[in-house]
Amino acid sequence: MAIVIWLAIYPLITIVSLLIGPHIGKIEFVPLRTLILTIILVPIMVYIMIPTVQRLLKDWLHK
Question: How far apart are CA 12 and CA 14, in angstroms?
Fold first, then answer.
């Protein structure tokens, strides 16, 4: 399952960093930056990325 999570989170963090990184980097208060990133990333991971990767790897995961 760790591989599934990594396969989902790595591209997502990369894309979000490229898209909003320059804007969010202007926020000096690190906890606020982290809050904004987690508000964006966690729902996408839970409801889109992990189910998609699990579906794609279902045969491998259930061996």
Answer: 5
Total domains in the chain come to 1
On whether the CB atoms of residues 44 and 19 are closer than 8 A, the answer is no
- Chain CA centroid to CA 42, Å: 6
E strand or H helix at 10: helix 2-24
The string of pLDDT tens digits covering residues 25-56 is 899 999 999 999 999 999 999 999 999 999 99
The SS3 assignment for 61 reads helix
Q: CA-CA distance, 63 to 46, in Å (whole number)?
A: 23
What pTM value is reported for the model?
A: 0.78
Distance CA 41, CA 60 (A): 26
* Residue 46: domain span: 2-61
